């Protein structure tokens, strides 16, 4: 794995980039042992048994990816390292999203990448997951931007929209020229979206929508909001454009998490919308919940990236930081922490990969997505906290990625279904009894 | 304009390299292999020229079978096709053998321009581009820092030891480009997905009209590069600025 941080050398090794004065061969060893086939997917050709395991992928889960998925992984990882990471601490400190990178995200093809047609790349779910992992290794705010654009705004237009709506919005959104947001949650209706107070009523051929939405990622930078409102026929979805009379957004102040991401309140004060703004195929809460399921899939993968970044930072720090005359990596308490992190990363990667395979086969059930979102987010948060502690005082600064990820993951634990709600979803699945109310 | 770009898959330069003590070769087992970052500049140069003046970019590589990954990356960036020469007999090939094989592979298709990096980031011999040109019987324009083309003549600003010089060349020729000649594009997702359906020819030595001849080169011994000496610290006693100026003059950077 090309690490975001330099590969750790727990035993002091030569730091030199490579040998010199050597006439190197152009060909390497003849292809040897091929790795196993998994689920009919050809494992990447690693040619030989690795002499050293990747500390962040001890089960070589990456080798389950196709060559194409690995190329996506490498491309996004490289882009994040070169284009995003240098500026993220500054954006986090300032509380701003690097909107100047949106055209680059678009030209990479990451916006709505798993959707078919309308200017979208049409990748597999696994490829989408892999990209989310690399984006969130940068920052949860970056992955959130892509999740909201692709899974929460483009996805419902693709799935529930009319042909005209798709034609009008999706190519522009894939190109990053239109930014979207998703308005479901309200200040007093989070885990219980049926309690929403935003209402839409018919007025002649039009609709009048009133209410407010809270904790809306991308809200104030969005050109288009997918807003969910109660109607006499149940919950419907509306496409609300920036600048429509009565529609405004203002940012949430004082966030200590997801600071490199825009979070807003949307206010709809008697906003008049034509019938053409309604998503014709979305009826009832199942529609927005289906969107969240898409986004949660991305989170299940994304948090692996945040966890990996923290783990690698901790590993590197432990190798280089000395106390009592030895690197702290040599102490048993440090090793116990690292061993636990490495194990939980492997577990999380396997869960995410299996979920991706199920999703590509059309078999992923919402409860399985809940399991992965809940387990992996908790894993990532625990790793971030442990890593923070291992870095000591350095761990609380923006000089290292750890505290930033740790703070972000607090929001990720809550959004798109709290840990508690996903626990109850799982509980209901295994007992057949609902504990929601 | 048909452009052949030579590329190579190398052990990830971000991981410390190790030499095999018996073969004196770089260990490639268990190390991630990547498209030589230096080659991305050549690919970008080729794509930019083809986009501006028509034609296609074909990437040519010699290496083990897994080098298809590096070729695929070039295809994902926008190259139209690729050729990989993989043959057990080429394990440990030296620079001249490499040039012979690449030249033979290039000759199989039409080409107006051959682009390479100045040297590989693992072997660093830096002689393959010129050798290819010699074998193809065409000029080599090396160490390009910028390239422009007016439809018939390439104008190249070359890096030299003392600065730069601008040269012109007609086609066909071999052009080696330095890192920094351009900003290589990232492959797009669409490009990555399109890469799988682009032609990728896998060749062995039998497919090529190439004479390998005797062993041209033998690695007798390898040793680590000498440690860098510590820099000189200029303590500022009021003449520091003057002293630094002198040092910069000595280094011929001003």
Describe this structure in words.
The complex is a heterodimer of chains A (437) and B (254). In chain A, the strands form four sheets. In chain A, strands 4-5-9-8 form a four-stranded antiparallel β-sheet, covered by helices on one side. Helix content of chain A is 45%, strand content 14%. Chain A has three domains: 114 residues, Acyl-CoA dehydrogenase/oxidase, N-terminal domain (Butyryl-Coa Dehydrogenase, subunit A, domain 1, Orthogonal Bundle); 98 residues, Butyryl-CoA Dehydrogenase, subunit A, domain 2 (Beta Barrel), CATH 2.40.110; 146 residues, Up-down Bundle (Butyryl-CoA Dehydrogenase, subunit A, domain 3). In chain A, helix 3 runs antiparallel to helix 4 and helix 4 packs antiparallel against helix 5. Chain A is an alpha+beta fold. Chain B is an alpha/beta fold and 254 residues long. Chain B has a single domain, classed as Rossmann fold. Chain B contains six helices and eleven strands. Chain B is globular. Chains A and B meet through helix 1 of A and helix 2, helix 3 and helix 5 of B.
Secondary structure layout:
The complex is a heterodimer of chains A (437) and B (254).
Chain A: H1 67-94, H2 102-108, E1 116-117, E2 120-121, H3 125-138, H4 140-160, H5 163-174, E3 180-183, E4 199-203, E5 206-217, E6 224-231, E7 234-241, E8 247-251, E9 263-273, H6 286-320, E10 322-323, E11 326-327, H7 332-360, H8 366-390, H9 402-414, H10 419-431
Parallel strand pairs in A: 3-6
Antiparallel strand pairs in A: 1-2, 4-5, 5-9, 6-7, 8-9, 10-11
Helix pairs in contact in A: 1-3, 3-4, 3-6, 4-5, 4-6, 6-7, 6-8, 6-9, 7-8, 8-9, 8-10
Chain B: E1 3-7, E2 9-11, E3 33-35, H1 37-53, E4 57-62, H2 68-77, E5 81-85, H3 95-107, E6 113-117, H4 128-136, E7 140-149, E8 153-160, E9 163-170, E10 173-177, H5 189-195, E11 200-203, H6 240-250
Parallel strand pairs in B: 1-4, 1-6, 4-5, 5-11, 6-10, 7-10
Antiparallel strand pairs in B: 2-3, 7-8, 8-9
